[in-house]
Amino acid sequence: MTLLRRYATLIGFAAILLFFAISLPDTFLTSQNLINISQQVSMLAVVAFAMTVVMAMGDFDLSVGSMASLSGVVAATLFVAGWSVPAGIAAALAVGLLGGLFNGLLVAGLGILPFVATLGTLTMFSGIAFTISDGRTIFGRDIPEGFGTFARDALELGSLRIPSLTLVALAVLAVVWFVLEHTSYGRRLYAIGGNMEAARLAGVNVRRLRASAFAITGLGAAGAGLMVASRVASANPTQGAGLMLDAIAAVFLGMTMSEEAEPRVLATLVGVLILAVLDNGLTQLAVDSYVREILVGGIILAAVASARIGLGRG
Amino acid sequence: MALLSIRELHKSYGGAPVLSGVSLDLRAGEVHALMGENGAGKSTLIRILAGVTVADRVEARLDGASLGLGTPAEADRAGFRFVHQELNIVPALSVAENIFLGHPMPRRFGAAVDWKRLNARAAEALARFGVRHIDPRAKAGRLGVGDRMLIRLASMLVGGASPARLFVLDEPTAALTHAESDRLFRVIDELARGGAAILYVSHRIDEVMALASRVTVLRDGKVALSAPTAETSRAALIRAMTGREIAEGHPPRLATPRPSVVCRLEDLSSGRLSGLRFDLRAGEVLGVVGLDNAGQSDLLRLLLGEGAPAGGRAEVAGRSLPRSPAEAWRRGIAYVPRERRKEGLMSGRTITANTVLPHLSRLSRHGLARPRREAAEARRVAERLRLRFQHLSQPVRTLSGGNQQKVVLGRATLATPRLLLLEEPTRGVDVGARQDIYAALRGLAAEGCAIVLASTDLPEVLGLADRILILRDGRQAAIVGAAGLDPSSLLALIYGDEEPVPAS
């Protein structure tokens, strides 16, 4: 029972892979398709990894999607104003850091529930993105060459071309993994997630840590927003909107693999891959996108339910 | 004849027997105590009575008729009622609503709640065991733990498939103050006099001797002793529980307090605290006692850096009061909170993670965690406190209560603190673990650690403390030397019946 609970998600992932490998014998398990998947999912992956940081503390951040849109719009607007690519990127990332810090101050400083605080900033960030861009898509000659081509670049490894977006996602994964699993900082975040009051009374500076963790998540969301903007070589105030729910779903899927239901970033990676493989495989099978959403939602619920079963006392 | 008779109760988990051949007879109108160390099988026995756990084999008879024990519904039909340590009440609802929670409420016109009758019936239920000080219309969240327990008991009288016949109370006084405990004992007497059988689970020998007419002791899943309390003794109970002779009481002092002052308060006031004035020297143990909620927690939390002083002067470890718990721990002020589960443990996290948390900065290098060093340190304190565990990476929720408490204490003492703040350090802890904790505290004092010990266990305070601070409504009422005091004279001081002789 424990085994089933622990490995249900991995078994499910393997089953999904097997299913697509059999139904799509020629196109699914090819290196080209797998590389495509890795690129398609890289933006979601970055948001999900960043989300894992706040979820380690038992919090979550609903504003990541609109932060991603905002950062893309900020960068594009600055490019239009003549800023260089590095300066635009730095400014957009700074916006993410500050926006995340704002979330953190609302949650940790004022004690507003994360759900409410980030629901508020979700709306705010989105509104700011619309205001800055005037509701238009910024594209074409306004976007510098270097910014748009970055997403199409790749690292050549023999016959393999690893897309640069995939490499960015892997780098973010490595950093988040290092911070959460190998630093005192990460241990304190998990302690807060385990019992916030106990952590505070044991000398953990809960306020500062919560604020900083939200800042990190904001930074990650902004980074993902830049990746999206680079990939489509344009920016509009809604293009990051879909990321938030999928990111939270990926973290939840990952949490089902931990005995104590703790979010771990490598498990989040599995969650991200499940969503990505489903999306890719079902698209290839020409399953209607609305049906796809029903299936994805059902699989998330099944995974979480199977983790609850046998937990007994729940 | 027994109301409930249990014979040949067997239960094992994965081949390991937890209960083997246990017999138990509970009589109407009688308080029967159940004792045993943590892990002796008490909890399993209770869960089987409640129908939450199914026995491998059992012969149960209720009034001589065979009784099936298997589901909570059967237990409810048999009239069994359970009060657990963790009290589930809904703070936002009134006392009366909580009493009727899960039971049909009195109604008017078939739908609307009849508030008048609801409150009247709640008051009646409370009055059945002599409780008149709780207003049924008050918000339950405003009540103390003791009163919450009373409304749970009242709730058991109004509802259920059949009238209550057996009350099982699992360490009910663990979280109660003296006054609350006294009141609960009167209620238990009242329930027994009404013809109910009471199964009373407790670690506290004094309570058992005073309250119960019979006692059964479990050890390693077997009945080690079952006798009328009048025919047994404290020593016999301890022997039965531990299987060995334990020098009960408190280990002797290993050293006398040193001259250096660790903590000095001069007429300090803060919040509801006032008139605090004492010096605490290195190696000294200061007991803090008072009636329920007389400010014990507030005093310890103030020293931990919560709450700002309003007047007077305070010096802790050479400086002013810390401004946050984080600063307090950095300066060598460690804290063992009152509510182990709520305020002490991250119960899903490992023994190591729980133990090293406040010491991470010291154990890491440039912020980089060093897991092997963390584990080595955790193992060192675990062994010093004689923690019983399988491996350091097991979640602390899988430990027994006494061992969980050792983890919290281990966290506070991983590095010898300059000032150790303890609240109820042995609540819900069995005799053996208690002795280990006392020995550790003596060792810390000998190393020069100053200890502030707030406890409702008066023999414990008298046995460990050098001096005792008595709080009354947040005010420092007295500070006395512990030598020569006994529990009853200390209690008299707490109630303010006599004026103390000031300690030098």
Quick take:
Chain A has 314 residues and is mostly helical. Chain A contains 13 helices and four strands.
What would you note in describing this structure?
Chain B: Residues 4-245, 257-498 form the ABC transporter domain. Chain B: This is ABC transporter domain-containing protein. Chain B: It comes from Rubellimicrobium mesophilum DSM 19309. The complex is a heterodimer of chains A (314) and B (504). Chain A is mainly alpha-helical. Chain A has one domain (2-308): ABC transporter involved in vitamin B12 uptake, BtuC (Orthogonal Bundle), CATH 1.10.3470. Chain A is 74% helix and 4% strand. Chain A is built from 13 helices and 4 strands. In chain A, the strands form 2 sheets. A two-stranded antiparallel ribbon of chain A has the order 1-4. In chain A, strands 2-3 form a two-stranded antiparallel ribbon. In chain A, helix 3 runs parallel beside helix 5 (114-133) and helix 8 crosses helix 10. By secondary structure, chain B is α/β, with parallel strands linked by helices. Chain B has 3 domains: 4-242, P-loop containing nucleotide triphosphate hydrolases (Rossmann fold), CATH 3.40.50.300; 249-332 and 417-504, Rossmann fold (3-Layer(aba) Sandwich), CATH 3.40.50; 346-414, no CATH class. Chain B is built from 18 helices and 21 strands. In chain B, the strands form 5 sheets. Chain B has a 6-stranded mixed beta sheet, with helices on both faces. A 6-stranded mixed beta sheet of chain B has the order 17-18-19-15-20-21, with helices on both faces. In chain B, a hairpin with a 2-residue loop joins strand 13 (261-270) and strand 14 (273-281). Chain B is globular, with a radius of gyration of 24 Å. The model of chain B has no long low-confidence stretch (mean pLDDT 87). Chains A and B meet through helix 8 and helix 9 of A and helix 10, helix 11 and helix 13 of B.
